[in-house]
Write a structure and sequence with these properties.
Helix content is 26%, strand content 21%. It folds into three domains: 21-279, Rossmann fold; 292-367, SH3 type barrels (Roll), CATH 2.30.30; 390-457, no CATH class. Helix 2 (50-63) runs parallel beside helix 6 (210-218) and helix 8 (396-409) runs antiparallel to helix 11. It has helices spanning 15-20, 50-63, 76-89, 123-129, 133-143, 210-218, 226-240, 396-409, 417-422, 432-438, 441-457; strands spanning 31-37, 67-72, 95-102, 104-107, 110-113, 131-132, 146-153, 182-184, 189-193, 248-251, 292-299, 310-313, 322-326, 331-338, 341-346, 351-355, 359-367. The chain is built from eleven helices and 17 strands. The protein starts with 14 loop residues before the first helix and ends with a helix. Strand 4 (104-107) and strand 5 (110-113) form a beta hairpin.
Length: 460
């Protein structure tokens, strides 16, 4: 693929070594960030904020002790060269971070970042003129055990028909948004999207986008790991955009990782931030249990000179739709075999089919439990979800609570004010698709039956 020409010769660390070597604490490692803001696009809509977003984020990271490489309004050749230079500095114990603000798109399940000189001509033109996100992530995964990837970028497909509605500028290229494809990587990865699948990230009317503004306001909080920071960012962006934009993330982190190390200074402008909940705490203040040891299959044997990812598809055929990409060492569970294909489930509950040529068994990994052992007792007004049939509910409120209690038990992060008020979401970790995929058949059937009953009663 032409997009791979930018890669330079690098000392390779074997995937097995990445997983079997004991990791040093993140605070003891060098923190290195590669920050890109592209605003001055030559052949598509100019975006006012990515440059200032990148500048402000780079300044904040430097305040927090990061070694930052800042790149503004980069051509494709400049982006590739700058990232190659950045990559050569990385050491295995470094905490690496890549931030990109600007245009982006997905094509065939793979995400591409837009340099300022990119043209949108046809499918092959995208592969030649854009920068494949998987290439960045592949190098980060080889070179550092812990990495953060943050995309404050549009989620649109310029080959879709139609024009994005609305007068406010968005980080789209002026066509119907389709959303970036999901990306998975090996243990030690934290991948953040500024908005949920199928949506467009707003560029904002001030100096910063809603997402980056919220990130700047929360990332300096000492002692808050990246999951806690993102929960605050998600709440702030939801409120500012009236729930039109909801930041998302995929995580395979095992150790706690923070933007601000324990001894990092906090800028005075962060002093009025509300206190963070105690880390490692579950609903109603219950402590998180110790991690459990689980056995996973993993992705291996990919060609680093090729695409270097395994496709996750909707079915067991090569021409089935690609819905995500999985890099080396991505952990998964195998649930079904059909010829050379395997139906697999990712850590966040997403499932699909992948070719067995690049799936091996097995590794035992310490995985933190996402929820505490004890589950909060529902308020007395609502029966337990499994005790009564849907028809026995006495009100729309009862049906609503019983249905959403099931979602809550499977880690769903509620997006409505009512849901967040009724259920403690500090330890949530799944979107709706992942939460439903994690449900056993009985719970899925119960959710569907409760929802059908709500429709019968005209509940809203």
């Amino acid at each position: 693929m032409g997009a791979l020409l930018w890669r330079v010769a690098l000392f390779l660390i074997t995937p097995l070594a990445l997983l079997t070597t004991v990791c040093a604490p993140a605070d003891a490692a060098t923190r290195r960030a590669f920050v890109v803001g592209n605003s001055a696009y030559q052949f598509t809509s100019v975006l006012p904020n990515p440059v200032s977003d990148a500048q402000d984020l780079a300044a904040r990271l430097r305040d927090l002790g990061w070694d930052v490489t800042l790149q503004l309004d980069q051509s494709r050749a400049q982006m590739m060269s700058a990232f190659a230079t950045f990559s050569r500095q990385l050491q295995p114990d470094d905490l690496s971070l890549v931030y990109f603000a600007g245009h982006a798109l997905q094509l065939g399940g793979e995400n591409y970042l837009a340099p300022v000189d990119a043209r949108i001509e046809n499918e092959e033109g995208v592969k030649r003129q854009f920068v494949p996100l998987n290439a960045f992530l592949a190098d980060l995964s080889r070179l550092s055990r812990t990495r953060i990837l943050i995309l404050d970028a549009c989620r649109d497909n310029p080959f879709a028909e139609g024009v994005a509605a609305g007068n406010e500028k968005t980080r789209s290229t002026g066509v119907a948004a389709k959303g970036l494809a999901r990306v998975y990587a090996g243990v030690g990865s934290f991948i953040v999207y500024s908005t949920q699948p199928g949506n467009v990230a707003l560029d904002g009317t001030g100096r910063n986008s809603p997402f980056t503004r919220a990130l700047l306001q929360n990332m300096s909080l000492t002692g808050a790991d990246v999951h806690a920071v993102m929960r605050r960012v998600r709440a702030a962006v939801q409120q500012e955009t009236n729930e039109a934009q909801i930041p998302w993330e995929n995580s395979s982190l095992v150790d706690e990782v923070a933007f601000a190390s324990t001894g990092a200074p906090q800028p005075t402008r962060m002093a009025d931030a509300p206190p963070m909940p105690a880390p490692r705490s579950g609903p109603r203040g219950m402590p998180m249990p110790p991690p459990t040891m689980e056995q996973y299959h993993y992705v291996t044997g990919l060609d680093p000179k090729g695409d270097n990812f395994l496709a996750l598809r909707t079915g067991p055929l090569a021409n089935d739709v690609r819905i995500a990409t999985m890099g080396p060492d991505t952990l998964l569970k195998v649930h079904e075999s059909r010829g050379a294909w395997r139906r697999v489930e990712l850590i966040d509950g997403m499932s699909g089919w992948a070719h067995s040529n690049w799936i091996a068994c097995c590794r035992t990994i310490a995985v933190p439990r996402a929820q505490p052992v004890a589950v909060p007792v529902p308020p007395p007004r609502a029966p337990a979800p499994s005790t009564l049939p849907p028809a026995a509910a006495t009100s729309c409120d009862d049906l609503w609570y019983r249905r959403n209690a099931i979602w809550h038990n499977h880690g769903y992060c509620f997006t409505t004010a009512r849901g967040r008020q009724a259920f403690d979401t500090r330890s949530c970790f799944r979107d709706q698709q992942a939460a439903r995929a994690a449900m056993p058949p009985a719970d899925r059937a119960a959710v569907d039956a409760l929802q059908a009953r709500e429709r019968e009663l005209g509940c809203r």
